[in-house]
Amino acid sequence: MNKFSENLKKIRKDNHLSQEQLADEIGVSRQAISKWESAVAYPETDKIIALCEKFNLNIDDLLHKDIREVKGEEESSKNINKYLDDFLNFITNTINLFCNMSFKSKCKCLFEELVIGTILLVICLIVGELGESLLYTTFDIVPDKLFSVLYSIFSSVYVLFAFTSSVVIMIHVFKTRYLDYYDKLKQDSIKDEALPVEQLGAKEKSEESNKINLKKKEDKIIIRDPKHSEYKFINGLFKGIVGFIKFFVLCFSIVLFASLVSLFCLLIVSFLVIKTGLVFIGLLLAVLSSAIINLVMILLSLNFVFNRKNDKKKMIWSFVISLALFGMGIGLVIVGLLNFEYSKNDQNLLKTEYMEIDMKNNLIFGYYYPEIEYIESHNENIKIEYTINKYCEINHSNLSDNVIHIWASCENPIKLVKEVINNFNTKKIVSINNHLQDIKIYTSKENIEVLKNNYKNYTDGEVQYQNTINSYEKKINELQAKIDEYIQNEEEYQEEINNLKNQLLMYESSNE
Fold first, then answer.
1. Least packed by Cβ within 10 Å: which of 12, 28, 425, 494?
2. Are 158 and 131 in contact (CB under 8 A)?
3. Which helix (H) or strand (E) holds 484?
4. Which residues have C-beta within 8 Å of that of residue 353, sequence separation ≥ 6?
């Protein structure tokens, strides 16, 4: 009897019910409840069953057991199940949220978590360094083995605590910022589905500027509710990085503009080879398709920078068709080039000239052109014969020096380009360069021997000079390796000295 009266009073108070309220729900008078709690009277069987149904109790527990112990066991079991259900619901809601988020919102969510994680990592590292310094200061007199054990324990505990707390903080921020808002949108969507069509239309119109309703399963969430709280520093960082990216995209679009102008110039220039047939048609298609692809990329870049929508279908079709045309153009150019004639040296473009140099005993010639043909003659000086492009002129180093260098330069490239175009229109590809060819030296036999010996001695000296440099570099590397080894040994000796000092201090402190 006493157990029942105590249990009844306990469960009534736990449920915040007065005697009168409980009496009304059970269908008895307030005096009856008072008598039951005072153990003056005992309820009838149907009233006991009603109490058990109301408070979800077992009859035996209500009448004979301590209701606090029974509730404690039930709460413990319920808590375990509740934690498991909450974890599974968190995983499910997270997956559903990411499946329904827009791409921009996904990037923003991941960026926020990355920033928060980075900040927490920096804080943990700073606290860890401070804690490590404090640990070394506090346990400096402790023996090394004991200190190692204590250091391992403290480090493990701190790492576990830092990791757990960081994960909890990141999950809490994610839940507050996104999952709770996602639940709110779902609840609003359910309420909107229950509204009449007229009211739903008016509600959507009034809230159109605030948020996106989940009217369809495939709708994407955009986090832009003004009532939804945001972390300003994260939002500022996100905008700063987006602005930085937009700046580089804008610079890239300027490059694309320049390339587009170049392509249009190339389009005009391509009409100079109109006589080539398939090559001209293929080149025209390739340039036009490249210009369209370039234009699509410019539009994509500018729309990204200025937050404008892209007409995806038109852009995709334009890009695909342009690629197909570009491939066709390249194919036509290749087919057309198969009918061209290739000539490495066209005699019509070459000219042969001569120059004379006074002979000197220390004269060196041929260092830049080792393939020279020496021809004996009665000429006491040196006569040099060479072949170059007819649009180029010969240049040479100071003839008063002992090392003579000659080279060709084309000072009228317009004529050279015109020659190339004319040959191209006649379906000929001629190799045109400004290099000296067929160099011959006419001089006496004695001069030839002197020139060859001078050239050999000069090249041998260059080789010896290079070998000397390589030898010095090798010695420098060996000395540097020894220096590094000495520095490493010095660090090891310094560490050993510090350990000996610590042992000496510990020994002195133990003797005191």
1. 494
2. yes
3. helix 445-511
4. 385, 386, 387, 388, 394
Write phi, then psi, for 418 (nearest 5 degrees): -60, -40
pLDDT of residue 205: 46
3-state SS class at 392 = coil
Which residues lie across from 429 on neighbouring strands?
A: 342
Instruction: Dump pLDDT digits (tens) for 209-220.
Output: 444 444 344 444
Q: State the distance between the two ends of the chain, measured CA to CA, in whole angstroms.
A: 73
Q: Within a 10 A sphere around the Cβ of 112, how many other Cβ atoms?
A: 21
Per DSSP bridges, beta strands 382-389 and 437-443 are antiparallel
Residue range 105-155, pLDDT digits in tens: 788 788 888 888 888 888 888 888 888 887 777 766 666 677 777 778 888
Q: Which of 242, 234, 240 is nearest to 119 (CA)?
A: 234
d(CA 266, CA 294): 14
**Three-state secondary-structure class, residue 354:** strand
Q: How many residues does the chain have?
A: 512
Task: Specify the long-range contacts of residues 241-245, CB closer than 8 Å, at least 24 apart.
Answer: 241/111
What is the enclosing helix (H) or strand (E) of 430?
strand 428-430
Residue with tokens 């198969």: 338
- Rounded CA separation 124/151 (Å): 17
Tell me the one-letter amino acid at 81: N
Q: Residue-wise over 409-446: b if at least 16 C-beta within 10 A, else e?
A: ebeeeeebeebbeebbeeeeebebeeebeebebbbbee
Q: d(Cα 485, Cα 222) in Å, to the nearest integer?
A: 61
Residues 173 and 115: their CA atoms lie apart, in Å, by 12
Q: What are the φ and ψ backbone dihedral angles of 169, each rounded to 5 degrees?
A: -65, -45
Mean pLDDT of 66-74: 59
The answer for residues whose C-beta is within 8 angstroms of residue 223's C-beta and 6 or more apart is 101, 105, 108, 109, 178, 181
Q: Which two tokens stand for residue 19?
A: 């005697």
Asked whether the beta carbons of 458 and 468 are under 8 A apart, the reply is no
Cα 22 to Cα 12: distance, rounded to the nearest angstrom: 7
pTM value is 0.45
Q: Helical H runs in 306-359?
A: 312-337
- Let me know: does 26 contact 51? Beta carbons within 8 Å: yes
Summarize pLDDT for 8-25 with one digit per residue, the tens.
Answer: 788 778 777 888 888 888
Residue 433 main-chain phi, psi, to 5 deg? -145, 170
Contact 374, 448 (CB under 8 A): yes
User: What span, in angstroms and rounded, lies between the C-alpha atoms of 115 and 170?
Assistant: 10
What is the percentage of the chain residues whose pLDDT exceeds 90? 9
183 vs 65, 99, 142, CA distance in Å?
A: 42, 14, 55
pLDDT, tens digit, 9 for 90 and up, residues 362-418:
887 765 666 788 888 888 888 888 888 777 777 777 666 677 777 777 766 777 778
Judged by phi (left if over 0) then psi (alpha if -120 to 50, else beta), residue 440 lies in: beta
CB 45 within 8 A of CB 39: no
